[in-house]
Design goal:
Strand content: 25-35%
Order of helices and strands: EHEEHEEEHEEEEHEH
Number of helices: 5
CATH architecture: 2-Layer Sandwich
CATH topology: BirA Bifunctional Protein, domain 2
CATH class: Alpha Beta
Distance between the termini: 20 Å
């Protein structure tokens, strides 16, 4: 287990492309050993990103129509399909060595899910995994999303958790390629909590997960 300290940067509202450039610079520095592992926690102005899993069919309207509504559509190198980011959704980009998770990307993904489950439960929302699907759910409603990349055994991109009602932004896509999926938020599930408070809880829980991997959370982490 890697034990070097992790830096956390709470960035507030930050444009996607600025945050993406920043995490790439950090990833290169971590890989070279010239920068500390870092977790960026922030919100984005409205944006749709499409990962490597989007086969070009996950937008519900033509791209130019969405862009005219003021929502950029960007292709990125993470895994997963199309997703939406916007104010009221907290995003975290852990730029850390995969060795913290036994160099196992599946373990890492399950740990990130566990982090979001813990944060949801800490504010009174009974979230869980769904077999065969990534992300975090409340019954059949999706509340949190994953999309990561790894280069040089250093992770980047990450996770997003809906705090406030952001369904209007998700109307333009089939999130992660799931047709007719219901998107929910902590607010809609009865939690009265601000994004800034969730960002603090996410920081605490992510740091614990990176230090202790599967032992930090009182539930088994399925692998593979």
């Amino acid at each position: 287990m890697t034990t070097n300290p992790i830096r956390v940067l709470q960035c507030g509202l930050c444009p996607f492309q600025e945050a993406n450039s920043r995490q790439k610079r950090i990833r290169e520095g971590v890989a070279r050993g010239t920068m500390p592992e870092t977790i960026l926690i922030l919100e984005h102005p409205p944006v749709i990103t499409r990962g490597r899993g989007d086969d070009g069919t996950q937008l519900r309207r033509p791209e130019e129509v969405i862009v005219r509504e003021g929502i950029p559509v960007l292709d990125v190198e993470r895994g997963g399909g199309a997703t939406y980011h916007g104010p009221g959704q907290v995003v975290a980009y852990p730029v850390v060595r995969l060795s913290r998770f036994q160099n196992d990307i599946h373990r890492y993904l399950r740990v990130l899910e566990g982090v979001m489950i813990q944060v949801c439960r800490n504010v009174g929302v009974n979230a869980h995994r769904r077999e065969g699907l990534t992300g975090v759910w409340v019954e059949d409603r999706k509340i949190a999303f994953l999309g990561v990349a790894v280069r040089g055994y250093v992770t980047f991109h990450g996770l997003s958790l809906n705090v406030l009602d952001v369904k209007q932004g998700f109307q333009w896509i089939d999130p992660c390629g799931l047709r007719d999926v219901i998107v929910t938020s902590l607010q809609e599930e009865g939690a009265s909590v601000a994004p800034s408070e969730v960002a603090e809880k996410l920081e605490e829980t992510l740091l614990a997960a990176c230090e202790e991997d599967e032992c930090w959370l009182g539930q088994p982490i399925p692998l593979g």
